[in-house]
TrEMBL record:
One of its GO terms (molecular function) is metal ion binding. It holds the Pfam family Glyoxalase. Keywords: Metal-binding. InterPro entries: Fosfomycin_Res_Enzymes, Glyas_Bleomycin-R_OHBP_Dase, Glyas_Fos-R_dOase_dom, VOC_core. It comes from Lacibacter sediminis. This is VOC family protein. The keyword Thylakoid does not apply. Residues 4-127 form the VOC domain. Signal peptide: none annotated.
Amino acid sequence: MLSRVHHIAIICSDYERAKKFYTEVLQLSVVREVYRKERDSYKLDLALNGEYIIELFSFPAPPPRPSRPEAQGLRHLAFAVENLETVLEHLKQHNVEAEPIRIDEFTNKRFTFIADADGLPIEFYED
């Protein structure tokens, strides 16, 4: 029935700031960018290693949403990484602060969280 996650859709408050975060800080590649005049909205399709994963939307004055990892709704977006220190150093170069590294009590793998340009939680989980 289900084969895989197709994409994750994110609505941002500041399109240019969010676009910069996802393309420059997280280094996702742009698949396509479309301005939808009838909705006064941009849609940016982003890929990781050639796989389409995120639709980034802008809308005029979207309402804010709780974003803490423990808030009701989608908890966070997680990326698998090979080396957490390499990721943390890259984030530091872009003035992005990460939470202290935690250890998964079931797998003993290391992980940490950051916030995107709108404060949405993003996890980096070391494989």
